[in-house]
Predict the structure.
Amino acid sequence: MGVFRRQLLYLTNDQLTTYRWEKGSHSAGRSFPNNETGWEAFSLHLAGSQDTPTYLLADLIEEDFQRDSLPHVLGRSRRTLVQRRLGQLYRDTPYRQAILQGREEYGRRDDQMLFSALTNVGLLKPWLDAILQQKVPLTGIYSPALLSATLIKKLGLASDNLLLVTHQSSGLRQSFFQGSALKFSRLTPLADQNLNTVADTTARETANTQQFLASARLLPRGEVLDAVILAHGEDLQRLRSACQDTPAMAHRFLDLADAAAQLGLKNPGSISLCDPLFLFLLGHAAPASHYAQAEQTRSFSLWQVRLVLYILSAGAVAGALLSAGANGLEALQHYQQSRQMDGETRVAQLQYQAVVHSLPPTAASPQDMKAAVNIEQMLTRNAPAPTQLLAIVSRALDTLPQIRIDQLHWHVSTKTETADESAESQQPRPAPGIEEQPAGELIGIPQKPSQILLIEGQIDSLRQDYRTALESVRLFAAELSKNKHLHVEITRSPLDIKPTVKLTGNAGAEETDTKARFILKLTLRPES
């Protein structure tokens, strides 16, 4: 894809010349005459240019300029007004455009507009048909007259009333500027490129243009027209003698080689016409298209999309390669660190073995001593004790002073009590005379066991008020259950109110020895 390569086309009324722009300069290609033979040859020439952006510079006699003013409106209304005016002025050509050049100083302060168009549609059609047929990415259609505004800025030639005269392969072009705004331009064909013909035609045409500008009131009365003539160094002497200053017009002559060097062209001394100046402006920093239609630049838009996709793809591939390189480098570093750690481990093991062999013999091996220390630390951390359960019960009793504890039965278990009993019955009994050893789970190996506390108690000051006794036991169980690790079960109530139990008693007789006894089973599960 020709990202940095461009193709410049210079079109005149007689022929089209191709140029290749690369590395900041252009080189001439082929010229094609304006006839069927030239059109066919040009189409074949474009066969390999589908990926090369192409710029068409149309230096034609049939380019018209008109000044007008429009009401100052904005947005869509302004675009509609401009298009309507363009349609009225140039209804027979689609190659037209409008430039806003400020506002009037007085009155309604209307917008000052410059309307221009390429009016010879038939001359452009065969060349553009070939470009569209070959799907060449056409960037735009440009005018040397409109590019002259950029030229005078770069050469520092702007003045209040400037007539820029340039000698090109198409003829003699005169462009009138007020400040940096183009007001008028016309191209005069030359009968031949003889120096005397060029000088005489320049003198005659500049005088005619001065008279036209004065009569059209483009040149204010009493103002002097500043005519700047760009020509080859060898032609300047003849032009100076032919173009004499008058009270209405003053001449300045600028050598093409100096102008080309000021713009930055390579090998400026070889330039004899002004064509390379405009080609350089077009290739170096082309502005927005002057006259091209949207359907004519569609291939260029698609080329831009493809270019963006190529750039994004290249960026993704580059990013993937960088990521892969970074991962590979990190893997290499990890591998080297692993090798280093393996070496250090082997050295440490050798040193350890040497230290172990140098120690005197012991009754226990280091592994056994380490295991014993680990077991001791585990017992210290996990050994069961009733302290936590008793603290919970004590806090609950503070809120219920009517409850009295008679007995406490504490033991540990790794399962439910029933399961423990079943397991205990299945375990083999030790032989007579051998002390039974507790199970490892019961002393905290490898984790804390569950603790079970049976509470036997009674309710003080009952006086046969079993409703109060039942409520006190329920409140006691609820207070204990506030601990999320504690399971509370009422195994015996002060009064058994199950439907299957028979209640007996004597009416009117008080049993002074009757006590409201109860039993609670607390199971404290270890914290996970």
About this structure: The CA atoms of residues 388 and 524 lie 9 Å apart. Confidence is low (pLDDT under 50) at residues 416-427. The chain has 13 helices and 17 strands. The radius of gyration is 54 Å.
